[in-house]
Design goal:
The complex is a heterotrimer of chains A (about 240), B (about 290) and C (about 325).
Chain A: E1 4-13, E2 16-26, E3 31-35, H1 42-49, E4 55-61, E5 64-65, H2 71-76, E6 79-82, H3 94-101, H4 108-121, H5 123-127, H6 138-150, E7 156-160, H7 168-185, E8 188-193, H8 196-202, E9 205-210, E10 213-219, H9 220-225, H10 227-234
Parallel strand pairs in A: 3-8, 3-9, 6-7, 7-8
Antiparallel strand pairs in A: 1-2, 1-4, 4-5, 9-10
Chain B: H1 2-32, H2 39-55, H3 60-83, H4 91-113, H5 137-159, H6 161-171, H7 173-178, H8 183-209, H9 215-230, H10 235-256, H11 259-276
Helix pairs in contact in B: 1-5, 1-8, 1-9, 1-10, 2-3, 2-4, 2-8, 2-9, 3-8, 5-6, 5-8, 6-8, 9-10, 9-11, 10-11
Chain C: H1 3-22, H2 25-50, H3 58-76, H4 80-102, H5 107-125, H6 131-134, E1 140-141, H7 155-179, H8 181-191, H9 193-198, H10 203-229, E2 231-232, H11 239-252, H12 257-277, H13 282-296, H14 300-319
Helix pairs in contact in C: 1-7, 2-7, 2-10, 2-11, 2-12, 3-4, 3-5, 3-10, 4-10, 8-10, 11-12, 11-14, 12-13, 12-14
The chains are: A alpha/beta (about 240), B mainly alpha (about 290), C mainly alpha (about 325).
């Protein structure tokens, strides 16, 4: 049974149909990337998975139907969303942001261990633990957003353009940590990216979306060597 | 000098009450970006409930805590039942709903309890404490109760997970949903707390101004002004504003223009402050990026 | 204006002219008041609906207009119809002057400033130093005007037609203003004042002018109101009047000229209906009406009508066969 399955997903903003019935799935332990240009519908797909946008079609997580459910309930099933724009609580401290990630958990002691582990991945966050989160740099806020998601101990992480606005070196560091988290803690990841090259290095599987439709799917290697993709999205 | 000191201290006592109501206003404003114009009437209504309890023979402090509990529940219910349906309506339409609520509460209180003024007991002794004749023990007690309430609220928001969740929901509802916070219920809780704080303010002020359905309208106005002077997105500012306005009102009323015009003069002064510092003393100056 | 709208307007006007002859004098008087309120509401709507500045103090301008009329008629023997333009001019100036310092205040802060105005004015009117003009707490009593040229109308009917004429003039002027450059500038300032400024709109001038014009309309209404009620006193112009005006504008429909008429009818008649439903707590019933209206029509009556018409138009379009259909 796949961890996540979407079938015939349609989503609209007002009168405009943005997703025209997409279907995809991902296995547990995989890192899947959703590639596409600006406006293709990638962010909408993630938002649909979280119940933030009204959709038609089916979404199954670990066999359970989640379409039509409220975001707050979907989170409790173990799906953590790192949103586009990071969604930082700017007026709260770094540590308060992290603790909010664990808001739905009841195991207090384990939360403390997770906090230390997250500081282990991102020592810079520990340095800034009592600083107001809004004053952190772009890269640090991205790390904070990822860490907040990790504090949920999620089964699935949804990441919306984690490389956006970050220097290439920082992106490399971040993606390295994501791979480590995926391998060590078996956290599955669905990563939406415009930066196709780096995403295909990180991912095991990939889908290509164009104007609300999936046009290509396969393993990351297959997609990387696809001629059309290489020309349009990888630039060579 | 004596009289002046007395006016200042009495001003601090009423100021504490303004600070409490101002804090309630700011709490709801931070969560919803709406000013709850019905805050005063809610407080007044709950004070009447306390009065009924006391008249039925319930001892003061028992009635006090029962009323605070009742106020909390009433606040939650009002948010869930009356405010929720207009959550996404334009701001002014929600303001009209608040006005409707205000008018209903005022009218029902007048209907049940009539408009004759009633006395409300004070839990503090008649005689001035420690022979301190500058301020009555009730006024001193009121300041004390206000400070305790404010301290409790501060600790709740700063140190408890639920308080943190409420702050998060007020600042950034979308991100809050993404960490599993039920934003709707946080709003309802906020209303409950604001109503509870308001009821305490009502019970502290009733012995001074006597209980009648229109008791809180002047107070609401001063609380509103206090919240703005302090900076409407700043709870500590609201508290400061409350004390400032209380003292100003008393001093102006006694030394500058009699009681008739003190409301107008105090307001004009406050407007003057706002024209010079539009975000209030401690409010965040909002820089808009184009 | 479209042909359909013109026909609708003509029909409404015809009905309006016939009404005073078929209903009781008291009803005519109530309709007169509703019309007077609609002028005030159009003024407030310009400020709040079209220009986005909130005012919780327009009752003050109504009061100033009313007192202008009363003082001119009582102390200087000015005929009633001449007091209207004077009241308008005085309020235009007063509104403009108030609008200037208020420029720095936005949203809530402006609401407080106007609230202060609304609360202070009755107190000021009672101030004993100016009692010899304002008549202090007791106010001023004035006489009801008689129909001119011996027309076969009674006083209530004449007053109704006089007010109706003023309504037509004021609404026509308002319509012209709002459709023209100034109206568009007002809306631009409301929607995005930074862009408006960048496009050459003088924000400060537009905002203060709008305040002035809005106050002028309300002042004219106040003068008419004084003449209709034949009496002015400070306590009739308390903060509740300002709040009632705001309610009327929202219920009628923001940024809508016909909304002012709906609003005027609402604030005149609904309290009466509420009173009939419950003598004990009429305002509670009124409050329930308010909340109910906002649940059902958050955009006001005018907004609901607009939505309804749009829906009917869409349905008519959908049922018409499309191109290429057989």
């Amino acid at each position: 049974m796949a961890l996540l399955e979407a079938a015939g997903l349609r989503a609209s903003y007002g009168q405009t149909l943005v997703l025209h019935g997409i279907s995809f799935s991902m296995e547990e332990g995989a890192i899947t990337t959703l590639l596409g240009a600006n406006g293709a519908g990638k962010t909408t797909t993630l938002r649909a998975l979280c119940g933030m946008v009204r959709t038609r079609g089916e979404i199954r997580f670990a066999g359970q139907r989640v379409d039509g459910r409220a975001t707050e309930d979907i989170v409790r099933l173990g799906i953590a969303h790192v949103p586009d724009g990071r969604g930082t609580f700017a007026n709260l401290t770094t540590e308060e942001n992290l603790r909010l990630g664990a808001y739905t958990r009841k195991d207090r002691a384990a939360v403390e261990t997770d906090l230390e582990r997250v500081y282990g991945y991102f020592p810079r966050l520990k340095e800034r633990r009592v600083q107001q989160a809004g004053t952190l740099s772009g890269g640090e806020q991205q790390m904070l957003a990822v860490s907040r998601a990790l504090m949920l101990r999620p089964k699935l992480m949804l990441l919306d353009e984690p490389s956006f606005g970050l220097a290439p070196l920082i992106v490399k560091e971040l993606f390295g940590i994501l791979r480590a988290v995926n391998e060590r803690e078996r956290v599955s990841m669905l990563v939406v990216e415009q930066n196709a090259a780096m995403a295909l290095d990180l991912a095991t599987h990939a889908y290509l979306i164009e104007t609300g439709r999936i046009v290509l799917s396969g393993t990351a290697d297959e997609i990387k060597s696809n001629d059309a993709v290489r020309r349009s999205y990888l630039g060579y | 000098m004596d009289a002046f000191l007395h006016q200042v201290l009495a001003g601090l006592a009423t100021g504490g009450i303004y600070a409490s109501v101002a804090l309630a206003l700011v709490m709801i404003y931070q969560a919803t970006h709406l000013v709850n114009f019905a805050q005063g009437e809610l407080a007044m209504f709950c004070t009447y409930i306390a009065w009924s309890l006391i008249n039925a023979g319930v001892p003061y402090w028992a009635a006090f805590f029962m009323t605070v509990g009742f106020a909390f529940v009433l606040g939650v219910l009002i948010e869930r039942i009356i405010i929720r349906p207009v959550e996404n309506a334009p701001v002014l339409s929600v303001v009209v709903v608040f006005i409707g609520l205000l008018v209903i509460l005022n009218s029902v209180a007048g209907w049940i309890y009539t408009y004759t003024i009633k006395t409300f007991p004070s839990p503090f002794p008649e005689k001035p404490l420690f022979g301190f004749t500058y301020v009555s023990s009730h006024e001193l007690g009121a300041i004390g109760v206000t400070l305790v309430v404010l301290l409790l609220l501060y600790s709740f928001f700063r140190f408890t997970p639920l308080g943190l969740a409420m702050r998060a929901a007020a600042q950034n509802p979308e991100s809050s949903r993404l960490v599993g916070i039920r934003v709707g219920w946080m709003l309802a809780l906020g209303w409950g707390l604001a109503a509870a704080v308001g009821s305490v303010a009502g019970m502290m002020v009733a012995p001074i101004v006597f209980l009648d359905p229109n008791m809180m309208s002047g107070i609401l106005l001063y609380a509103f002004a206090a919240a703005l002077v302090g900076g409407v997105d700043n709870p500590a500012g609201a508290v400061f504003g409350g004390f400032l306005v209380g003292v100003l009102e008393n001093v102006i009323g006694s030394y500058v223009v009699g009681n008739d015009l003190k409301l107008s003069v105090a307001l004009v002064l406050i407007i003057g402050v706002l024209v010079i510092r539009p975000s209030g003393f401690f409010g965040k100056v909002h820089v808009t990026r184009v | 204006m479209s042909k359909r709208a013109l026909i609708a307007l003509a029909v409404v006007l015809a009905i309006a002219c016939v009404l005073p002859f078929v209903v009781s004098n008291y009803r005519t008087f109530q309709l007169t008041l509703a019309l007077i309120y609609s002028i005030a509401l159009l003024g407030l709507n310009m400020l709040t609906g079209y220009n986005g500045q909130i005012s919780l103090g327009h009752g003050a301008f109504y009061a100033i207009g009313a007192y202008c009329a009363a003082i001119l008629m009582d102390k200087y023997g000015v005929p009633y119809w001449a007091t209207i333009p004077v009241a308008g001019a005085v309020c235009l100036l007063a509104g403009f002057l108030f609008g200037l310092p208020a420029l720095r205040l936005e949203g809530l802060y402006l609401a407080l400033a106007t609230f202060a105005l609304g609360v202070s004015l009755p107190q000021l009117l009672k101030y004993h130093h100016i009692e010899k003009w304002t008549g202090g707490v007791q106010g001023i009593v004035i006489a009801k005007p008689d129909p001119p040229f011996g027309l076969p109308l009674n006083q209530d009917q004449w007053l109704y037609f006089f007010v109706l004429a003023v309504v037509l003039v004021m609404f026509a002027l308002g319509w012209n203003l709002l459709r023209g450059r100034i109206g568009r500038a007002m809306v631009a300032v409301r929607d995005n004042h930074i862009s408006a400024e960048a496009m050459g709109v003088n924000n400060a001038m537009v905002k203060s002018l709008t305040f002035g014009v809005s106050a002028m309309y309300t002042g004219v209404a106040g003068a008419l109101g004084a003449i209709a009620v034949q009496f002015v006193a400070p306590d009739s112009f308390n903060i509740f009047l300002s709040i009632t005006f705001l309610v009327g504008v929202v219920v009628g429909g923001l940024a809508s000229i016909p909304g002012a008429i709906f609003g005027g009818l609402f604030i005149q008649f609904v309290p009466n209906i509420a009173d009939e439903i419950s003598k004990a707590a009429p305002w509670a019933i009124f409050g329930i009406f308010l909340i109910g209206f906002m649940y059902l029509m958050p955009m006001g009556v005018a907004g609901a009508i607009r939505l309804g018409l749009a829906r009917m138009a869409r349905r008519a379009q959908n049922s018409r066969p499309g191109p290429g259909a057989t």
